[in-house]
Amino acid sequence: MALWLALLLPALPLQLAQRALPQPLQAALPLAIVEGPPQRLQVSYCNAAARAAGIAPGIKLAAAQALACELVALECNATRERAALAELACWAGQFSSQVVLQPDGVLLEIGGSLRLYGGHAALHGTIAAGLAELGYEGALAEAARPRAARMLALAQMHGVAARTLQTLPLAVLEWDDATVQTLHALGLTTLGDVLRLPRESFAQRFGAEQLHDLDRICGRRSDPQPFFEPPARFAARLELPADLTEAAQLMIPAQRLLAALEGWLRARDAGTTQIDFVLGYSPNRNHAPPPTTIRIALAAPERDARRLAALLAERLSRERLPAAAVTLALNVDCTQPFAAINASLLPQPASLNVDWLQLAETLHARLGSERVFQLQTVDNHRPEHAWRAVPLALQIGERASPPCAAAAGPRPLLLLPSPQPLAGNEESQGETPTYASEPLALMIGPERIETGWWDHAGPASGSPVRAVHRDYFVARSRRGQLLWIYRELAAPRGWFLHGLFA
Amino acid sequence: MRPAGDSGMTASASAPAYAELHCLSNFSFLRGASHPHELVRRALALEYRGLAITDECSFAGSVRAHLALQELSQDDAAARDFRLIHGTEIQLTEGEGKAVAPDAKLVLLAANRDGYGNLSQLVTLGRQQAAKGSYRLSRADLEAHAAWLHNVLVLLLPQRHWREPFDAARVAAIEREARWLAEFKPGASWMACELTRGPDDAHVLATLQAIGAATGLPLVAAGDAQMHVPGCKALHDVLAAIRLKTPVAQCGRHLAPNAERHLRQRHRLARLYPIELLLQTQAIAERCVFSLAELCYEYPEEVVPAGETPASWLRHETYAGARGRYPQGLPDKVRKSIEDELALIADLGYEPYFLTVYDIVKFARSQDILCQGRGSAANSSVCYCLGITEVDTALTETLFERFVSRERREPPDIDVDFEHERREEVMQYIYQRYGRERTALTAALHTYHPRGALRDVGKALGLSLDQVDKLAKTMAWWDGRRPDPARFEEAGFDPSNPVIVRLAGFVQQLVGFPRHLSQHSGGFVIAQGRLDRLVPIENAAMVDRTVIQWDKDDLDALGLLKVDVLALGMLTCLRRAFDHIRCFGGGPTAMAEVPRECPQVYDMLCHGDSLGVFQVESRAQMNMLPRLAPREFYDLVIQVAIVRPGPIQGGMVHPYLRRRQGIEPVDYPTKGVESVLERTLGVSIFQEQVMQLAVVAAGFTPGESDRLRRAMAAWKRRGGLEPFHDKLVTGMVLHGCTSEYAEQIYKQMLGFGEYGFPESHAASFALLVYQSAWLKRHQPAAFCAALLDSQPLGFYPPAQLVRDAIEHGVEVRPIDVMASDWHCTLEPSSANPAVPAVRLGLKLVSGLSEEAGKRIAAARCERPYADVQDLARRAELTRNAINALAAADALAALAGHRRDALWATLGVDVDAPRTAPLAAHSAAEPQIELLPPTEGQDIIADYQNTSLTLRRHPLALLRERFNARGYLSAAGIRDARDKQRVRTTGLVTCRQRPGTASNVTFVTIEDETGTVNVVVWENTGKKYRRALLRSRLMTVYGHVERVITGVTPIVHLIAARLEDHSTLLGTLAVSSRDFH
């Protein structure tokens, strides 16, 4: 006989956000998930700390901030939620081959697995423990029909201790608000009240579709479910609590990913020989440190999360993070039957038909990705900020951003790393500057550049401002060399060499 | 403080003359970084020959520049000689829709009045060819309207934007544009050479010179000035960032590369430009002789029939009206005042103005639209006779002389309020009678307020939305101009952080910057000829509305006239009440028929019993009524004006009350002061009195007094009242006042600012106070019905209006499809058929459309409804409509209690054709038993679906619980001793934090026995913030404060502790059975 287990994650967006916070903060920090147009953001979920401050779903973000000034407000991220649910479904695959994806959890057909796991209590225990490992809190309920299992779990989420369908509140039907409100207005409050209405009269007033739904709940009508197809390739990603700079701190989130992986592998009865952990960093001004990939290669297929975690911990202890990591991803591209030993090699890389790409590949391989760059122009008046180095794009179309138009004025090909004072600064104020003790002839200019008042040299707003106040000239030396020089307009004034024309 | 300019003028003394011909003010929204007056002052300080304000396709800033120059001209000879040129910058475009490409960019300058009119028409065309806020003009438009370029001088701007490379393609394009212009406007066109330290100015100059020589288009120097001093560059960048909706740091080269686009020193210009290019600017400036002072306004002519002069016609109509007003014969006193007024009007030549207003009012009368004039000229015998106002001058002494003074030559000001639902008819009449090319609405210029400035600057500086919101919240407590660092700290920001310091600086600079133009609520300008030759006309956001580019202050400054056509809900309400009385019988049916000076009306007002009465129904007004104890019409004039931020901030309220009650002697520091303040017992209450004091007590000339009035109005936004302080105080001391008294008057002026209430307006409002109070006293049913049908109106929701009517003995009957019309109606009451009862209208059913409601009433007239199906069929109701009726309990007569009614309506087949015979299905349906709703559930459903209940007050159901907890009722609080410690609970009906008392919140709570006025001081409010902000049912612990002044004691509850008991209300819905 079929038996359905509903596993629902209440307030999933909130749970995802909570899970990303460092442990001690999870309970203390008021946290709210907000939705809506930017000017009218509304709280859709909030944690206990926020509730304690008087915040409740439905109130405006502005009002919430008035109640708790240290409130952390995050916007919903549907993509992230979908990914988390798919991950959960992968993981749940180990308990049942019939998994149904729900908007807020999964349904599992467990009639067949009960014996394997040693009965209801044991299976519930296993699933609950597994959920905790993944960092979730969920509601579990069983029933003979999928709709009924879901409704019971929802009731649990709402804190209603209903054991039978008859006493369930109407809200768990998840019918449209208008219908539920109409039923309430008629004085009907439980599923039992509704089921007692004459079928014909009910259908005339609320439509045949609702009647069919009641029939599905009661088993008077079949209720086929679309089963979840686990992906062929495992990819999961976590956003990390703010400042994780120590590699060792990554172990808790990594264990969650590995637990999910284990579920997925078990569902496929497979193991893997190669796992990639990718650490992403937050962009620091102009560029982010390139992501770090930690590859764990194994001699034989493996799936045990604990063993994999131990291997990872070993590798992480040797890793130095270039910056605070903000994302952690786990990718597995191929799997092998668990028992078999597989000695196959990596797939051959597709041949590239563009020469420079081959060169770039070689450079990457020889020097390491972090040492190969390409240059790009930046839309900025200040010459030293008008270009930047970006990681070399290996795939066509992978350019970071479209290059912008070049500056209107003359710009040298070679810009000095830092402007070099020209001789006689102090006394030759306003007079012709000299270079290598020779006076320079001013050819073009002045081009005045005064901007950058907002730009601080460091990340803190207290660091000095990198504003420029300069008159630039193209100058020629006696030897015919073309130089790009400027006169500093802010005190201490003086002449500087900034670049050389070829 | 705006950043100061660079010092050292001496070097410029010998430099060649220069006039800046291309300069944008901040009326080129988010482009220019300086106010027009700053630009004019700076140009004068630099000894420029002249300055052209050339805002982009706009003359919106020209009046401000003109005024600044006029002001400077009063004591600066150089200013009188200075050429202020009016022009506009236009970016021509070619192509349509998405394929629009920029074409030539021009500066067009008005050479004389004709040229200005031409440009005004051209700008109008450009604005009207595009959506609100933008414009579109092409070369083809210029060629098609070549006549509009007569008396216009044209500069070609070869460099359209600093971002654009000066390459071969651009140079070729410039040559083509130059050739076209030289041919199109020979002898009146130039090429502007704008050297602003770009990449290669020398090359640009040489190239332009070559093009000039080749095309015959002469060169002239120009500066593309967008700020008055280079110190505004950072603000200029911030404005660009706001315009581009991108943080400054990411704007890249959309920001100006340097600060050169300011009004530069002449000696610096002399080093940059060949001298002939500089001298050319002066030659052009000499050709531009137009000043805005030349604009004069001509009234429409059609208000006078052929063969009459405006004067003869006004006299004729006034006396014709007088015969109607005084059927027993014209009293001599009135005849004298009519003659005096007509003489004054004739002196100032204002007859056409009065006739124009008369024409509009006459139209409204002919359509049965109630209206009432107010404003400085409205309260005159002439206006009373013409029917513009109902304020009988015999009641108020003649106010006219005080408002329209010969010496000040202020334009008269009449605002006319119309029924708000029918004002549109009046507006359409004006458009139709005078034509769209002669009529447009005044603009309302929106300027940056601190909150908006902070939001925009915050975003421009790259703060997150979250942070900007938090910061904006701190603004609620800013004093209006200057950010308070302590508030930043409270919001979690370090006030010494450079970003915050910068932010505060920018916000301060940006406050008061114009942001956009929108339409004024109803100020019409009507011209004799084409209005668009006086000022450009733009599209407004509303379809079919057009708006001129100047706002009310600008029109005032130029002495142009406008008529305000405003909407007033109370007039709608009064008209409805008179309609009800006409239908039911037994009372006056027009404002003029309402008996005057009825003592019972004043008795009622003295008790603070004014809920629903115009203007005096707010809590503050209600508290004032017993203290002021009005006994005659003029008392109402004072009542209306005294509970305002102006008199309250100026500390005038208590002295007035003390003097009125005879506690304090009435005295005047001088005879002059007495003449001004006699009617208000020596306390200045009206805006006009403050101005008059400046004249009689401080020796201001009428002109100075007028400038003081403008400064007062602008003080909150711009400051600038300080220069008047010394003059006022020393003047008053010289005229015999003490300096304390003088300081007090100055303080009052600060308070008056924008909020001062003029006596002329107060008098017109007072009339509506009296009229509505009379109806409330003598026709409470008609008044209640009219108020309910005119919602939203006033302070109180329908529930409170109905409860008040019931307390005053009115029988109110529920909504019923078998008896209700769309609006409320009067029916004979059960106690006495001669006395009306109110039948609530279907309008109160939420979710029911007006058409459906009217069909229900109409079909019922044929024959009563048999059942719900019959109702749905004959009134053609939709599913939503019929369900809404069930939810509102309007079907009781047809289908029983709410739930049965809903079950019945859900079973109705709304798609059944109207002609089909009634289906017999209802017999076939099995009967079901639905539990009837509890009283609590019905009460809540009543509120939800009709916003009021005729059942018990919800708190009556909870009373036993409250008694058990020792909570007093509102009645109990009313009877409590002074200082008694009490606790009570009630529904929160109003939370108010008046601007005049920011450290206190007033909360009104209500139960079945009445209301309690709770006072929450700042500390208590902070401590119980959540309960204060979020309670629907609030429990208050505190002590009673009982003050007896006048007839009725005023009782307040001073809160010490607040609790939120809103959850108790929830129990009403589900478990109210407990109380049965």
Please supply descriptive tags for the structure shown above.
heterodimer, A: 502 residues, alpha+beta, Dna Ligase, domain 1, five-stranded antiparallel sheet, 15 helices, B: 1076 residues, alpha/beta, 46% helix, disordered C terminus
Task: Give the gist of this structure.
The complex is a heterodimer of chains A (502) and B (1076). With 502 residues, chain A is α+β, with helices and mostly antiparallel strands. Chain A has helices at 12-19, 23-28, 48-52, 61-67, 78-92, 114-117, 119-134, 146-157, 177-185, 191-195, 199-206, 208-218, 251-268, 305-316, 355-367, and strands at 4-8, 31-35, 42-46, 72-75, 99-102, 105-109, 139-143, 234-244, 270-281, 292-302, 325-332, 336-337, 373-377, 387-391, 414-421, 434-435, 438-439, 441-451, 468-476, 482-488, 494-500.
Write structural notes for this entry:
The complex is a heterodimer of chains A (502) and B (1076). With 502 residues, chain A is an alpha+beta fold. Chain A contains 15 helices and 21 strands. Chain A folds into 4 domains: 4-218, no CATH class; 236-337, 2-Layer Sandwich (Dna Ligase, domain 1), CATH 3.30.1490.100; 341-406, no CATH class; 414-500. In chain A, a hairpin with a 5-residue loop joins strand 20 and strand 21. Chain A is elongated, with a radius of gyration of 32 Å. With 1076 residues, chain B is an alpha/beta fold. Chain B contains 48 helices and 22 strands. In chain B, helix 1 crosses helix 2 (62-73) and helix 18 (450-460) runs antiparallel to helix 19 (465-474). The chains are: A alpha+beta (502), B alpha/beta (1076). At the A-B interface, helix 4, helix 11 and strand 18 of A face helix 7, helix 8, helix 19, helix 21 and helix 41 of B.
